[in-house]
Specification:
Radius of gyration: 27 Å
Largest sheet: 5 strands, parallel
Mean pLDDT: 88
Number of strands: 18
Strand content: 15-25%
Strand order of the largest sheet: 11-14-17-10-18
Helix content: 25-40%
Length: 522
């Protein structure tokens, strides 16, 4: 008797169908075929032990388990439950009339319990596309799909729960994720928890001085622009970066779906309820490897890197000048293309990487260049330090800020500035203008504009053209820097509520190309 079970596999951030076929015929042995890796092959022993612990017997016949399509590599323990269902149904021990109505995934424990798997959100999307009635997923995995009300999403904790659903002999509405005690407790917990101010709980009002840097951070958040802060230790670079997370607006539904899929596939959306609404703030150590930042893995098991995990949020790279040169240069592609392609011999994946880079670096090895006589570095050491930030990388960073230590008087008086809530409101209004402007374009922020959209949305009048000609002639900006200035000017105009770019917007945007002017002096 041949039994088919609907399953799936994640490729990138999307799921593709996989069918588990089980056939039992006279003969000897259990055979698993279909390009399964070690984890899938080991599932046979887990599955047999779990079935025996629940009182089912393993027929002494030839059992063939095929994971179709045969030319696609399968990995992970998510096929345990489908294999177990196939064995007990094909052997005639249980009749499951609802077997083909659902997409089923889950890892089995030796006692028959069902453990969470990665990729629940893409699995639910696939089930909806294929016209299935719903999904049967482990409880912790099903919590990711609570906003998918078009499907019946069942949350199970044991193989017995799965059998109860598929036998269709009783009402199983208590197993729907929305009716579980775990879901209700998480909903109550979210209602009671206060909203934070950012990744590290830093409010803009707590940062004394640095008004110019705050303005640059506000513009960066309003338009999704890349930003680098160069300054001595203690000038507030890290605090400012953490405070930026508190002024970013909540993600739109489209943004939340993409980000949530990434974290679901990566297995990082643990104990999460529904879609991720807060923008991610990723802060890897400067010693992180190239695969950790860009993404990678062995064989077909390619995992997203930090540039993808920061999708629609902030990638904060502290001690930027200390990072390996290979990593710095590898960032050029994702910063420009808003995606990253990872190629292996037998596989090639594309992950989204539309992030806002916030980098922080000292100006020299000792950290005090530009602060009077405090620097002990030679001119060659200074030039070598910042030369790690190559010209092409700097061209892709829209806003460049040079920070100086806060004067003693301001530190002592500690006069607080605007709160993050006030700044966030201006950012929200600017983002709303961009949302309306780019409706139907497939982008969300000014920083994502390509040359065609720049020509359409960054129209310059005669006065603005004269200002840009003077700036380029004086500063020698590259063509890419020119495009970056136009994008930043468009964001400054949005913050001011202006429909068109004005000369003062261009001048302020050009003022944030500080490293283009300073670097030549090292």
């Amino acid at each position: 008797m041949l039994i088919d079970i609907n399953c799936a596999k994640c490729i990138g951030i999307d799921a593709v169908p996989v069918t588990v076929e089980v056939d039992i015929t006279p003969g000897i042995g259990i055979h698993l075929v279909g390009m399964a890796d070690i984890a899938v092959k080991e599932s046979l022993l887990r599955t047999i032990t779990a079935l025996q612990s629940l009182g089912y017997h393993i027929p002494g016949k030839k059992i063939v388990i095929n994971l179709a399509p045969a030319d696609m590599h399968k990995s992970g323990g998510g096929y345990d439950v489908p294999i177990a269902l196939g064995i007990i149904t094909a052997s005639g021990q249980v009749e499951l009339p609802g077997l083909r109505k659902y997409l089923i995934m889950g890892e089995l424990g030796l006692d028959g319990s069902v453990r969470e798997v990665s990729g629940a959100l893409p699995f639910a999307d696939l089930a909806r596309e294929r016209g299935l009635e719903g999904c049967i997923l482990p409880l912790e995995s099903a919590l990711e799909v609570t906003e998918c009300d078009e499907l019946s999403v069942f949350a199970v904790q044991s193989l017995s729960d799965v059998l109860r659903i598929l036998q269709e002999e009783e009402d199983c509405s208590d197993l729907l994720i929305w009716n579980t005690e775990r879901y209700r407790s998480l909903v109550a917990g979210e209602a009671d928890s206060p909203s934070g101010t950012g990744a590290g709980g830093v409010d803009f009002s707590e940062i004394i001085g640095q008004e110019g840097a705050k303005r640059g951070a506000e513009i960066a958040c309003a338009g999704g622009h890349n930003l680098i802060m160069v300054g001595p230790p203690g000038s507030g670079k890290s605090s400012l970066a953490k405070a930026m997370a508190g002024i970013l607006p909540p993600m739109t539904t489209d943004e939340a779906i993409v980000t949530s899929k990434i974290y679901s596939v990566a297995g990082l959306k643990r104990n999460g309820l529904g879609l991720i609404r807060q923008r991610p703030f990723r802060s890897p150590h400067y010693s992180a490897s190239l695969p950790a930042i860009i993404g990678g893995g062995a064989g077909a098991d390619i995992r997203p890197g930090e540039v993808t995990l920061a999708q629609n949020g902030i990638l904060f790279l502290d001690e930027y000048g200390q990072m390996p040169r290979s990593v710095l240069e590898a960032l050029r592609g994702p910063m420009e293309d808003r995606c990253v392609t990872i190629s292996r011999l037998r596989s090639k994946l594309e992950f989204p990487a539309s992030f806002m880079l916030v980098a922080a670096s000292n100006p020299c090895p000792c950290g005090y260049f530009g602060e009077g006589n405090r620097c002990s570095c030679t001119p060659g050491q200074r030039a070598g330090y910042l030369s790690r930030l190559s010209g092409p990388v700097m061209d892709r960073i829209d806003i460049q800020i040079w920070l100086h230590p806060v004067p003693t008087g301001k530190l002592v008086r500690r006069v607080k500035g605007e709160s993050s809530a006030k700044v966030a409101e201006r950012v929200r209004l600017a983002r709303q203008m961009q949302k309306e402007r780019f409706a139907g374009d497939g982008i969300f922020t000014n920083a994502e504009m390509d040359n065609r959209r720049i020509e359409k949305y960054c129209i310059l009048d005669e006065d603005c053209r004269k200002v840009m000609e003077a700036l380029i002639g004086k500063m020698g900006f590259s063509a890419r820097a020119y495009s970056r200035i136009l994008k930043v000017a468009r964001t400054i105009a949005d913050l001011a509520g202006c429909d068109s770019i004005r000369p003062e917007h261009l001048q302020e945007a050009a003022a944030f190309r500080v490293l283009d002017r300073v670097q030549s002096g090292f």
